[in-house]
Amino acid sequence: MEATRATAPTEPEQACPIAPVVDIVFSRWTTPILWCLNEYGRQRFVELERQITTISPKVLTQRLRQLERDGLIVRTYHPEIPPRVEYEISPLGRSLAPLFAHLAEWAATNLGKVEQARHDHDAKSAR
Q1: Residues with Cβ within 8 Å of residue 88, at least 6 apart in sequence
Q2: pTM for this model (two decimals)
Q3: Is 78 within a domain?
Q4: For position 19, what pLDDT does the model report?
Q5: Which of 11, 39, 42, 98 has its CA 20 to 30 A from that of 75?
């Protein structure tokens, strides 16, 4: 019998080098926020709320803070009465635009195929 070699568990980042990027960029609300800021430019909080209608103000605030911390957006505070805060995509965030464009192209080409595969699978499972 062949001896099996015991291996230590591999950290996700080592097993898949893009895992940290996926965690940063493709979390639940990050992609819509970055998409809006890339597509429509600088926006205030309420404008983002209007664009992404299903996000709560609390979650939007949390995601904006995290994106600012990650360097993907820039927050500009204008000390006027009333105070005004604007968000815009940073150059680092803008560097993701080709990735988003490629994913949008993939979606246009393939989401119908995914839906058909799901339908076929569910129909087969129902039998």
Answers
A1: 37, 41, 42, 43, 73, 74, 76
A2: 0.76
A3: yes
A4: 86
A5: 98
